Amino acid sequence: MEGQRANAEDELILSSLPRERGWAIPDLFLFQEFWCPSILIKEVNIFQKQFQAKESDIFVASFPKSGTTWLKAITFSIVNRQRFSSIDNHPLLTSNPHQLVPAVEFMYRGDVHCPTTEPRVFGTHTPFPSLPNSIIGQSNCKIIYICRNPFDIFVSAWIYFDKIKLEPLSTLKIEEAFEMYCNGIIEFGPWWSHILGYWKESMAKPSKVLFLKYEDLKEDVNFEVKKIADFLGFPFTQEEENKEVIASIIKLCSFEKMKDSEVNKSGIIYQFLEKKYFFRKGETRDWKINVGKVKLELEIRGERVKLELQIHGG
Ligand code: A3P
Question: A Pfam family name for this chain (predicted)?
């Protein structure tokens, strides 16, 4: 009876929200200014109201397709390097990074378990303003955000979401998807406010939020891994550097190693996501702009500015 009433209330709330088709999930609802997949809306709500962050918690936050899997693997390896000093039997060889670092939203669906060892490392795609108070203000937990060139996110997302899309969704044409993307309509979109929310907080509280770029990791992963370790309070010692601990973490988490690992070649996580699809090319600038229009919406010094660019030439 109680359950039925709760379901009816959920339906009532959903029916009042703007709704669009998603790229992989049939319905997205504009919930707290972001396009939340219908299958996670209740979970995000519970996460906001009930999650109690611990001081030592770590959150790997990102917009989908920005390099979440890579950053989860790196973060897990850094903070657990004393427990798993031998790379030969490291948990990343038997589990996908999303199983070791579960997305909090999916935890509330019962798809994954809460980490039992501290520091607990979680993933999240929830935009910064929608995070629970216990993460934002009340605890000293840390957030690492990874952002990526929006064109690369677009290409990666268009290919990925098409592979995992749920019935009865049809394939989005690339033009159609781009139009939706420019209007912010994509799972957890708009991407620009997602990035801005975390970026602003990283400026206001640099010891709380570390803002990283996928492209920087590609360019100098050694430097970025050290930066992450320092930020999290797990700096590498000179002895560890001499023993090439950083290099072994980088190798373990590299695109080639993860893509070729048996554990990531088959099987699903979160009940419907095929693990192999998390690894495609792992490159930057996998796109080219031809002649056409690009619409951008930016926030510059607090003002929202809409730009429409006409690109001439290839
Ligand atoms: P591409 O589709 O451009 O290849 P997310 O983990 O947020 O879903 O992002 C997925 C993107 O990160 C995909 O990009 C994927 O190939 C890339 N990726 C996954 N693991 C990686 C790794 N270890 N190193 C670099 N890129 C990785």
Answer: Sulfotransfer_1
Has 125 been annotated as catalytic?
Answer: yes
Which listed residue (90, 98, 113, 125) is catalytic? 125
- The sheet with strand 209-213 has its strands ordered as 121-124, 58-62, 142-147, 209-213
Model confidence pLDDT, tens digit, residues 141-162? 999 999 999 999 999 999 999 9
Phi, psi values for residue 199, rounded to 5°:
-65, -45
In angstroms, what is the span from residue 284 Cα to ligand 1's centroid? 10
Residue 264 beta carbon below 6 angstroms from any ligand 1 atom: no
Q: Using DSSP bridges, classify how beta strands 58-62 and 121-124 pair: parallel, antiparallel or unpaired.
A: parallel
Residue 57 CA to ligand 1 centre (angstroms): 24
Residue 136 per-residue DSSP state: I
Helix (H) or strand (E) holding 274: strand 273-274
Measured in Å, residue 125 CA sits from the centre of ligand 1 at: 15
Q: What burial letters (b/e) apply to 260-271, b meaning 16+ CB within 10 Å?
A: ebeebeeeebbe
Q: Is 284 in the pocket of ligand 1 (CB under 6 A)?
A: no
